[in-house]
Amino acid sequence: MLRYLTAGESHGPGILAILEGLPANLPLTAEDINADLQRRQGGYGRGGRMKIEKDEAQILSGVRGGRTLGSPIALLIRNKDWENWKEIMAAGPEAASARREVTRPRPGHADLAGALKYDQRDIRNILERASARETSARVAVGAAAKRLLAEFGIRATGHVVEIGRVKADLDEVPLDGIRERAESSEVRCADPKASRAMIEHIDEARARGTSLGGIFEVIVTGAPVGLGSHVHWDRKLDGRLAQALMSIQAIKGVEVGLGFEAARRFGLEVHDEIGYDPNRPAAASRFARLSNRAGGLEGGTTNGEPVVVRAAMKPLSTQMTPLQSVDLASKETAKAAVERSDVCAVPAAAVIGEAVVAFEVARALCEKFGGDSLAEMQRNHSAYLEYLASR
C-alpha cells in the first residue's frame, strides 16, 4: 500500500514526511522534489514567509544512488524561520510559551474549534499545525509519486481557472498547452488576459486588507482504464480524489468533470456517448468516449479519458482588516489575531492539488499493478495493456 504521514509545525525546526510503498529501483533524487517545492512557493499574492523560506527536501532514508530501495522514504524540509522562533517553539520546558501567545481566534480558521477540542489556552498550539505550511510535505510526497507516474506515461497538471470574480476562458487552449501557459503565468493561469485581471483583483484585495480565493483544476493524462473500483466505497477513485483535495487547507468544494453543472442539465446533455476506435492506444481503451463530461471517471474507476477535477478555495482566514472575535482569556469582544499570511494562495494551491491528485492516482496504480520493484510493476502493466488491446 502506498501511504504517507506528515509531521511538523509552521515555525518548528522543519516539516517531515514518511512515504511508504514506492517500488524499489524507481529513479528519485532531491532535485525531483525540490522543483515542485519551488513551484509551490511561487504565485502572485504570496506573503512575506515566501521571502524567508527556500524549501529544499533532504532525503533521510529509502533512497540510495538515486534509486528507491523499497523501504520507507523519510523526507525533511527545514524551516529557515526556525532561527527566529526556536525559543518560542522549543519542545522543552524552557520554551518561552508566554511570548507571542495568541488568544483571539480568526473566523474561518481552525483556531477556535481546535483550541476547544484540544483544551488549549494558547491558540498557537493549534494554528502552527493547522497552517498550510504542512502542505510542503504533501508536495514533496506528490513529487515522488509523480516520478512513479512518469514511468507509466501518466502526468498531472494543476492550473488556476478562477480567482475571485475573474474566470479564465480556456475553450481554445489545447490540453497539452495548458501546463506550459500556466507555468509562465504569475497566477498559474493559462489565459493571459484573465491572468492580468486576476493580478489586478489580488491588488484590490491587498489594498482593502482582505484576501481572495478561487478555483483550480487538475488534469491527469495517460491514466489507463481501470484504476480504482466500483465494488467498495473506499476504493472508488473519485471519492479518494475528493477526500485528498478537501483535506488541503482552505478547500471548501470539489467537483469531477462537469461537477455541479451536471445537476442543471438533462441526461442527454451530460453523459458521454461511447464509440470504438481500433487505432486508439490500448491504455486509453479503444472504447472511446466522444466527450469527457464525466471527467475521466465512471463508477469510481478511470475510463481512459483524462481525469479532470476542480477544487474551490475560500479566501484565507487571516484578514489585514481583522474581523470581530472574542478573546479566549478575557471573553471580551476583540479583533481577530493577525498572523503573517498571503493575500491569495490559489496559484500555490494548484501545485498542492496537483501533488495530492498525483499521489492518489499513484496509489491506485500500485494497487492495480503492484509489485516490489519497478520492473515487476512494469511487467504487470504491460500484460494488462496487451489484454486491453485484445478487447
Q: What keyword list fits this structure?
A:
17 strands; Chorismate synthase, AroC fold; five-stranded antiparallel sheet
Identify the CATH architecture: 4-Layer Sandwich
Write down the secondary-structure element order: EEHHEEEEHHHHEEHHEHEEEEEEEEHH
The number of helices is: 11
Broad CATH class:
Alpha Beta
Note the gap between the termini. 29 Å
**Helix content percent band:** 25-40%
Number of separate domains: 1
Largest sheet, strands/sense/barrel: 5 strands, antiparallel
Kindly report the CATH topology.
Chorismate synthase, AroC fold
Low-pLDDT windows of residues: none
Task: Categorize the overall geometry.
Answer: globular
Rg over CA atoms, rounded to whole Å, is 22 Å
Average pLDDT works out at 94
Q: Indicate the proportion of strand residues.
A: 15-25%
- The CATH superfamily is identified as Chorismate synthase AroC
What structural class do helix, strand and pairing data support? alpha+beta
Describe what this molecule looks like in 3D.
With 391 residues, the chain is an alpha+beta fold. The protein has a single domain (3-389), classed as Chorismate synthase, AroC fold (4-Layer Sandwich), CATH 3.60.150. 32% of the residues lie in helices and 19% in strands. It has eleven helices and 17 strands. The strands form six sheets. A five-stranded antiparallel sheet has the order 8-7-9-15-10. Strands 1-2-6-3 form a four-stranded antiparallel sheet. The longest helix has 24 residues, at 346-369. The relative contact order is 0.17. The model has no long low-confidence stretch (mean pLDDT 94).
